[in-house]
């Protein structure tokens, strides 16, 4: 069944229209699935793998139309959406983090403000500072023209200077560092994170979150028809 097909209708005006339209009340809520998703007698665990919701529904139930149950059974995908394929995840990472990150052991506490221009003394190339993370020794920059000899080059912004330690595409730059127990830890950017800390890039973090979305609960095949029918009946029963 289509998820909204049996939702009760209400009279509603869209925008500045004078005509009243009958529209399904999408605020309707039925707690039936809430009871099911906490009862292990009715669900199995499932690992999503490069599949659309309708494909998983067909695989489990020989019917693609039960895809709506996955969102009701799993709060995390209802909030964050269906997990992405690896190629789509990379596309999103590049859109979300499109710039370049300079890492330096020079102090960034003063100067190097977002919006300022930074110039390479060797290359003469310029870039605009988008963001600054002084605790990580990072400048997120957007190049005005190509910068050559970036590693080890001195860069200036107004009265302030720094030495480029490394540069990397933003999506592959460090979001945070963890210790051996997986705890987020701070470090002195003038020294660097050292070999005992593990770098977690923005792409790493996105992949980890996407992996969590792949772990879902699904209604057991022998229960899907009866639960879907009970859900539909609850929608159409007068309170």
Mean pLDDT: 85
Give the tally of β-strands. Answer: 13
Low-confidence segments, ≥5 residues, pLDDT <50?
7-12, 22-30
The share of residues in extended strands comes to: 25-35%
Major β-sheet profile: 6 strands, antiparallel, barrel
Q: If strands are numbered along the chain, what order do they take across the biggest sheet? A: 4-7-6-5-8-9
Number of domain units: 2
Structural class, please?
alpha+beta
**Number of H/I helices:** 7
Helix content: 25-40%
Q: State the order of secondary-structure elements, H for helix, E for strand.
A: EEHEHHHHEEEEEEEEEHEH
Describe the structure using short key phrases.
elongated; 28% helix; 239 residues; 6-stranded antiparallel beta barrel
Can you tell me about this structure?
This protein has 239 residues and is α+β, with helices and mostly antiparallel strands. It folds into two domains: 9-83 and 215-236, no CATH class; 92-210, no CATH class. Helices cover 28% and strands 28% of the residues. It has seven helices and 13 strands. It has helices at residues 32-37, 53-61, 68-73, 75-80, 86-96, 202-213, 221-236; strands spanning 9-12, 21-24, 43-47, 100-104, 117-120, 126-133, 138-143, 154-157, 160-169, 174-178, 184-185, 198-201, 215-219. The strands form four sheets. Strands 4-7-6-5-8-9 form a six-stranded antiparallel beta barrel. Helix 5 (86-96) crosses helix 6. The chain is elongated, with a radius of gyration of 26 Å. Residues 7-12 and 22-30 have low confidence and may be disordered.
């Amino acid at each position: 069944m289509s998820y909204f097909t049996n939702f009760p209708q209400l009279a509603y005006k869209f925008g500045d229209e004078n005509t009243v339209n009958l529209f399904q009340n999408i605020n309707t809520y039925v707690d039936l699935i809430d009871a099911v998703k906490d009862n292990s007698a009715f669900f199995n665990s499932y690992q999503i793998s490069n599949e659309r919701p309708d494909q998983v529904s067909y695989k489990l139930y020989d019917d693609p139309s039960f895809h709506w149950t996955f969102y009701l059974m799993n709060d995390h995908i209802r909030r964050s959406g269906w997990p992405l394929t690896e190629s789509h995840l990379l596309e999103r990472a590049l859109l979300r983090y499109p710039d370049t990150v300079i890492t330096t052991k020079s102090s960034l506490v003063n100067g190097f403000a977002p919006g300022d221009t930074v110039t390479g003394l060797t290359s003469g190339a310029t870039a605009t500072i988008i963001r600054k993370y002084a605790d990580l020794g990072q400048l997120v920059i957007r190049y005005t023209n190509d910068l050559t000899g970036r590693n080890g080059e001195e860069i200036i912004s107004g009265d302030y200077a720094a030495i480029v330690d490394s540069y990397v595409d933003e999506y592959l730059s460090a979001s945070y560092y963890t210790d051996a127990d997986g705890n987020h830890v701070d470090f002195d950017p003038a020294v660097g994170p050292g070999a005992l800390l593990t770098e977690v890039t923005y792409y790493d973090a996105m992949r980890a979150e996407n992996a969590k979305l792949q772990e879902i609960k699904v209604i057991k095949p022998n229960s899907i028809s009866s639960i879907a029918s009970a859900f539909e009946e609850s929608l159409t029963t007068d309170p």
